[in-house]
């Protein structure tokens, strides 16, 4: 029987760079007795240091990555029924954030190899009702931003970057999350830096930054001469305990990213000679940071499933297709399950005179092709060279045994 590989997991301490530094600041936060960020020191320190590392004017910490996207959408202040263009291959939290602010998600197709949206896929989705564009740097591989920004500028539309999986990824030397108008990051368990849950938004636009700060705080004007609750907004504040964990995590981030990038590059080189399996394609002007390691398979259907099964049998957990279906096929979107039976914001007085929103599968060839050919392998900063070499052997062996090819 083939030997099973034991890989570190980002679901526990074996794959998470957590230790004494985080415990020391947690102890300090608890000793202070003040665990809310409104008068604490940990979250403000995180915000200040994050803004400095990412070279932005303002960073605002909050409760989750989903809250980050919701806050970014709220910053552009859509009217009910306004449209926000996004990807159908993303976490549902990044889509329900649009709906929760009364806007309608409009899905752009993706490039089948990178699974990222492009200017070419976004362009046909733009209408007079488009309020914002959200680009997701999937798996930590940057979108081709210059054409997207040029398109957005042509139409006067702000660009929100979902960089939840792309900490320290760069495009033409610029950090993802700082290229568009607003950047969103997640500190969920599996991300490059984590506090279990949490998120942060960044911007150089003072108007967006002000509105996001208010939105996170129930729209209460902390620090204003005559504060009030200015508009409808939730409490998305981060706790001091999360901040205490994240300050050391931020200091560790460059090393975490470097280790992930180095070992992922080693795997790409090791499987480069395989005939039916392709490593992630990274453009010369981009730096991939490998939240996950996707491989593209020539086969699909049963062969894809069997190949993933053969890889799993050796202890390398993986996800064939990454997600089971594009977001618009999920019940919440498909059946318009939102607020009671209203189907709002897809339906309502604000939609009078407009054509119904239709998510036609035939208009997403890239998404279906991409999902049909991808297997996604977990990745973290504690993969060693020996483990990476073993993963490469497992992939090559699976190709030989399942597809009857390889070297």
Overall description:
It is built from twelve helices and 14 strands. The chain is of the alpha/beta class and 407 residues long. The protein has a domain of 237 residues: Aspartate Aminotransferase, domain 2, CATH 3.40.640. The strands form three sheets. It has a seven-stranded mixed beta sheet, with helices on both faces. It is globular and about 70 Å long. It starts with 19 loop residues before the first helix and ends with a helix.
Under the CATH scheme, the architecture of one domain is 3-Layer(aba) Sandwich
Overall mean pLDDT stands at 97
What is the CATH superfamily classification of one domain? Type I PLP-dependent aspartate aminotransferase-like (Major domain)
CATH class of one domain: Alpha Beta
- The ordered H/E elements are HHEHEHEHEHEEEEEHHEEEHEHHEH
- Number-wise, the strands total 14
* Assembly state (oligomeric): single chain
Widest beta sheet: strand line-up: 1-9-8-5-4-2-3
Alpha-carbon Rg, integer = 22 Å
Distance between the termini: 21 Å
Percentage of residues in helical conformation: 25-40%
Shape: globular
What structural class do helix, strand and pairing data support? Answer: alpha/beta
Stated plainly, the CATH topology of one domain is called Aspartate Aminotransferase, domain 2
Reported for the largest beta sheet, the result is:
7 strands, mixed
Q: DSSP helix count?
A: 12
- Please state roughly what percent of the residues sit in beta strands, choosing from under 5%, 5-15%, 15-25%, 25-35%, 35-45% or over 45%: 5-15%
Instruction: List low-confidence stretches.
Output: none
């Amino acid at each position: 029987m083939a030997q099973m590989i034991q890989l570190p997991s980002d679901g526990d301490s074996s794959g998470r760079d957590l230790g004494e530094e985080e415990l020391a600041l947690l102890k300090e936060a608890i000793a202070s007795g003040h665990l809310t960020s409104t008068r604490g020191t940990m979250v403000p320190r995180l915000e200040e240091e994050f803004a400095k590392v990412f070279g932005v004017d303002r960073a605002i910490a909050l409760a989750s990555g989903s809250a980050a996207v919701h806050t970014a959408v709220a910053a552009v202040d859509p009217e009910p029924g306004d449209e926000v263009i996004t990807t159908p291959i993303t976490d549902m939290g990044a889509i329900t954030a649009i709906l929760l602010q009364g806007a309608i998600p409009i899905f752009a197709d993706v490039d089948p190899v990178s699974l990222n949206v492009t200017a070419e896929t976004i362009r046909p989705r733009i209408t007079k009702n488009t309020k914002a564009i959200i680009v997701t740097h999937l798996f930590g591989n940057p979108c081709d931003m210059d054409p997207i920004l040029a398109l957005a500028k042509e139409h006067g539309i702000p660009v929100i970057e979902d960089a939840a999986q792309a900490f320290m990824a760069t495009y033409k030397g610029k950090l993802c999350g700082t290229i568009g108008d607003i950047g969103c990051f997640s500190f969920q368990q599996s991300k490059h830096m984590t506090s279990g849950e949490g998120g942060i938004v960044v911007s150089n636009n003072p108007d967006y930054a002000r509105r996001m700060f208010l939105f996170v705080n129930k729209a209460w004007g902390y620090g204003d001469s005559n504060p009030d609750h200015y508009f409808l907004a939730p409490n998305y504040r981060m706790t001091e305990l999360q901040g205490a964990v994240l300050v050391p995590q931020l200091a560790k981030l460059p090393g975490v990213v470097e280790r992930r990038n180095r070992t992922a590059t080693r795997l790409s080189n090791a499987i480069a000679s395989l005939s039916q399996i392709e490593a992630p394609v990274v453009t010369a002007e981009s730096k991939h940071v490998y939240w996950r390691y996707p491989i593209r398979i020539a086969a699909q259907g049963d062969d894809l499933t069997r190949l993933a099964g053969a890889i799993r049998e050796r202890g390398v957990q993986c996800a064939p297709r990454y997600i089971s279906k594009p977001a618009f096929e999920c019940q919440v979107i498909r059946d318009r399950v939102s607020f009671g039976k209203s189907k709002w914001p897809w339906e309502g007085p604000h939609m009078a005179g407009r054509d119904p929103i239709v998510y036609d599968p035939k208009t997403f060839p890239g998404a279906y092709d991409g999902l049909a050919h991808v297997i996604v392998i977990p990745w973290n900063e504690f993969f060693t060279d020996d483990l990476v070499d073993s993963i490469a052997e497992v992939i090559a062996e699976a190709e030989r045994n399942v597809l009857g090819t390889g070297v």
